[in-house]
């Protein structure tokens, strides 16, 4: 799916954070949102994922203006299309790793459902296999990011919104995460990554400098 911001502006606490920002994130492409700390990368990612409203401009998905989506339309978009790999977001600490991936209570243990194979595969790919019964709250920050990635794999999401996925990873896990995200793009998914990491940026097909319009004013 094509995800676009058209001339969006956002102020937080009365302070402008994004000022006339536009970006096109195409399917089959991994797009990097880059810029100095505080330039608004995370804010832009949240706007594109409909987690944060814009003050001006539009967010378009496959050409449809979704800026005015109702709460239920937003939920449907998140459920049917989106996966978020964000820091401190969307992981339920009091639930198991398996629950967080599948959002189903009975997938492991005695009841084996048809999705168990997919669960195992998604955990194998992120190096979390064997930890399905642990509480998510016991995982480190980097492990939680990989858990969110397992959920994206399990769901085979159409659009991935990813914030600093390699920031707290060692080099082995960094390469693994970069490879997994690249694979999503190769399979035609839309992958949008906010990052400072030069290796991550090198793996991206398109690079968007956040705040460049404001800088050129
Ligand atoms: N909830 C909030 N309350 C107040 N200010 C905020 C909030 N969220 C973001 N900001 C401000 O908006 C600006 C942009 O933040 P954002 O997190 O989008 O930047 P970033 O480019 O992702 O930064 P970094 O690379 O350091 O993660 C910052 O100045 C930040 O302080």
From TrEMBL:
<dbReference type="InterPro" id="IPR003439">
    <property type="entry name" value="ABC_transporter-like_ATP-bd"/>
</dbReference>
<feature type="domain" description="ABC transporter">
    <location>
        <begin position="3"/>
        <end position="217"/>
    </location>
</feature>
<dbReference type="InterPro" id="IPR017871">
    <property type="entry name" value="ABC_transporter-like_CS"/>
</dbReference>
<dbReference type="Pfam" id="PF00005">
    <property type="entry name" value="ABC_tran"/>
</dbReference>
<dbReference type="InterPro" id="IPR003593">
    <property type="entry name" value="AAA+_ATPase"/>
</dbReference>
<protein>
    <submittedName>
        <fullName>ABC transporter ATP-binding protein</fullName>
    </submittedName>
</protein>
<comment type="similarity">
    <text>Belongs to the ABC transporter superfamily.</text>
</comment>
<keyword id="KW-0547">Nucleotide-binding</keyword>
<dbReference type="InterPro" id="IPR015854">
    <property type="entry name" value="ABC_transpr_LolD-like"/>
</dbReference>
<keyword id="KW-0067">ATP-binding</keyword>
<dbReference type="InterPro" id="IPR027417">
    <property type="entry name" value="P-loop_NTPase"/>
</dbReference>
<dbReference type="GO" id="GO:0005524">
    <property type="term" value="F:ATP binding"/>
</dbReference>
């Amino acid at each position: 799916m094509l995800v676009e911001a058209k001339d969006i502006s956002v102020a937080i606490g009365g302070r402008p954070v994004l000022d006339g920002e536009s970006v096109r994130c195409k399917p089959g492409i991994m797009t990097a949102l880059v810029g100095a700390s505080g330039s608004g990368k995370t804010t832009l990612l949240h706007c594109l994922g409909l987690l944060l409203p814009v003050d001006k401009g539009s967010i378009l998905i496959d050409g449809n203006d979704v800026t005015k989506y109702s709460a239920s339309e937003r939920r449907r978009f998140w459920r049917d299309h989106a996966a978020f790999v964000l820091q401190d977001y969307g992981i339920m600490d009091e639930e198991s790793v398996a629950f967080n991936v599948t959002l189903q209570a009975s997938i492991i243990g005695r009841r084996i459902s048809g999705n168990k194979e997919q669960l195992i595969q998604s955990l194998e790919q992120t190096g979390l296999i064997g930890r399905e019964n642990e509480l998510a709250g016991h995982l480190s920050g980097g492990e939680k990011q990989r858990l969110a990635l397992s959920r994206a794999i399990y769901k085979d999401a159409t659009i991935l919104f990813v914030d600093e996925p390699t920031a707290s990873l060692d080099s082995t896990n960094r390469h693994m995460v970069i490879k997994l995200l690249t694979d999503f793009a190769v399979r035609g998914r839309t992958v949008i990554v906010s990052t400072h990491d030069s290796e991550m940026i090198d793996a991206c097909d398109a690079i968007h400098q956040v705040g460049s319009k404001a800088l050129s004013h």
